[in-house]
Specification:
The complex is a heterodimer of chains A (about 260) and B (about 260). Chain A is globular. In chain A, a hairpin with a 2-residue loop joins strand 4 and strand 5. Chain A has about 260 residues and is an alpha/beta fold. Chain A is about 40% helix and about 25% strand. In chain A, the strands form two sheets. In chain A, strands 6-7-8-3-9-10 form a six-stranded mixed sheet. In chain A, strands 2-1-4-5 form a four-stranded antiparallel sheet, with helices on one face. Chain B is an all-alpha fold and about 260 residues long. The radius of gyration of chain B is 22 Å and the shape is globular. Classes of the chains: A alpha/beta (about 260), B mainly alpha (about 260). Chains A and B meet through helix 3 and helix 4 of A and helix 4 of B.
């Protein structure tokens, strides 16, 4: 690790060490064949904090959040979420934990054979098998109102624009009132105006639901506006980390070109 | 010459490897299906939805094919039977051909083409667009919800579609019989039921469950493990149809041999 980021990390640690981390990643390793994506990655996320993970494409950012939610099994290291080691959890325990975490996919991953209503009802019905219909209806409408798309409730995903699909993806992740939301490149492929709207939405969600978030992005503007803490992933490690204002000052040939274009 | 032989050997060895890899993948998948399908929570609603969806989507094709099958069978067989003075055996001959072999086999081949390809394409595209991952992060076991339910549905619905196809084929045979002769519907079906025995119906009906299971299994395996990308989904769908049809043919051959050994032929 280079000297400047290490200095920032120490400063941050001093600021963040009052609370217990809600997510704690330690010495995480993951390789696909001979391609070592994560070599010794460490990360802490504290309650109500927006941690932005940045880095070049294909560097392992999505792999990191998929490891955190248990979609990819790491080769080594520990992953503690809400203080529980998810790598030793049974399937039922992992499913219960996943109900407390929202995941916004890069492609939105809406179920294309279902209407927007059914997409949002799906996680609710899986969690509350006996919840009466009126409660589910109210909850679905509430989250759709929060993302400003209540009028799309009976549309199919194919009838929505890219930005609307992203919003519905966020709405679906919120329907179970998660304590953590993981965003995988929420503004990729969107125009600057829609990206700005999604950024506003992420801030609103954080305020309204008081969630902790990990946001994977290349979007510097998004990082600037939403991040409480930035982690720069390079060569399989947390190469640099700190607040946005500190990160952009780093004179490092890997970090600097990312922020100064 | 040596290079050509070595290339041929490599191709044969790759073919054998692929066959065993494919077989082991299907075997592991089968074990997992039984493990998941019989473990609560049960997905009855989704099984019923899949049964309805799979059967209604195949119904028009099964109806048309079944009807033409019976009609053509009678029209083709009649001249030969009449030549040997056995024209009155037409209802019995068509009933035994349709119930024992042609009805189940042709229905299974149609389902292999229609249902297996549909399941592979659906699951493959769900995988490519991360919908299967989305289901998993919602706390739902996608294997149980998507795969086990579809395999149960095909195992139950292929026999139902076969019975339906048999009836439609026999109606086609009746109409075919009336193109040259005049034969009463009641008389035709009386001759049909007189000619059929329990040993004609049972093995033919039992094998349709195996056909249904194989079609669902192949369709789901190919879709669930399709490689990323739309090209991969297309390839998986193509392979799925070929493997499902081959599976139907192989199962048919095995069941026929076993029926023969048990004295049902």
């Amino acid at each position: 690790m280079i000297s400047t980021p290490l200095h920032i990390e120490e400063k941050q640690t001093a600021l963040r060490n009052d609370a217990e981390p809600i997510i704690e990643v330690t010495h995480l390793q993951k390789a696909f064949g001979s391609n070592e994506v994560l070599k010794d990655f460490n990360l802490k996320v504290f309650p109500a904090e927006n941690v932005v993970v940045m880095g070049k494409s294909g560097i392992g950012k999505t792999v990191l959040i998929k490891c955190i939610i248990g979609l990819i099994k790491p080769d080594a290291g520990t992953l503690r979420v809400f203080g529980e080691d998810i790598l030793v959890m049974k399937q039922k325990e992992l499913d219960d934990l996943r109900m407390r975490i929202g995941f916004v996919f890069q492609s939105s991953a809406l179920y294309d054979s279902m209407t927007i209503r059914e997409n949002l009802e799906f996680p609710l019905r899986r969690k509350h098998h006996i919840t009466v219909k009126i409660n589910i209806e109210e909850k679905v409408r509430e989250v759709l109102r929060n993302v400003g798309l209540e009028h799309t409730i009976d549309l199919m995903p194919s009838e929505l624009s890219g930005g609307m699909r992203k919003r519905i993806g966020i709405a679906r992740s919120l329907v179970l009132d998660p304590e953590i939301v993981l965003y995988d490149e929420p503004t990729t492929g969107l125009d600057p105006i829609t990206s700005g709207e999604i950024t506003d939405l992420i801030l609103d969600v954080q305020k309204k639901y008081n969630t902790a978030s990990i946001i994977i992005t290349h979007d510097v503007e998004l990082a600037k506006r939403v991040s409480s803490h930035i982690v720069f992933l390079s060569d399989g490690i947390a190469y640099a980390e700190g607040k946005y204002e500190d990160i952009i000052k780093i004179e490092d040939p890997i970090v600097k070109p990312f922020f100064v274009r | 010459m040596t290079t050509g032989n070595s290339h041929k050997d490599t191709l044969i060895s790759k073919g054998i490897d692929d066959f065993f890899l494919e077989s082991s993948e299907l075997a592991r998948f089968t074990v997992r299906i039984f493990r998941e399908a019989f473990r609560p929570p049960y997905e009855f609603k989704e099984v019923l939805r899949q049964c309805y969806k799979l059967s209604t989507s195949s119904l028009p094709l099964v109806s048309i094919t079944g009807f033409i099958l019976g009609l053509v069978l009678v029209m083709q067989s009649r001249p030969t039977l009449v030549e040997f003075g056995a024209g009155s055996y037409l209802p019995a001959m068509s009933a035994i051909s349709i119930i024992r072999e042609m009805g189940p086999f042709v229905t299974a081949l149609i389902c292999a083409g229609k249902i297996a390809s549909g399941i592979t394409a659906e699951l493959g595209s769900m995988k490519v667009t991360e919908q299967i991952d989305a289901m998993e992060v919602s706390g739902t076991n996608p294997f149980k919800y998507l795969v086990a339910t579809r395999i149960i549905a095909t195992t139950l619905m292929v026999p139902v579609l076969t019975v339906y196809a048999d009836v439609i084929s026999l109606l086609g045979a009746f109409i075919g019989s009336n193109t040259k002769d005049t034969i009463n519907l009641g008389f035709f079906f009386t001759r049909v039921f007189e000619s059929l025995h329990f040993t004609d119906i049972l093995p033919a009906f039992i094998k349709t469950f195996f056909f249904g299971f194989a079609i669902g299994l192949v369709g789901c395996t190919k879709g669930y493990y399709s490689k990323k990308g739309t090209e991969g989904v297309g390839q998986a769908t193509n392979v799925s149809v070929v493997v499902a049809m081959l599976s139907v043919i192989v199962i048919d051959m095995i069941v026929t041999q076993i029926s023969g050994l048990l004295g049902y032929l």
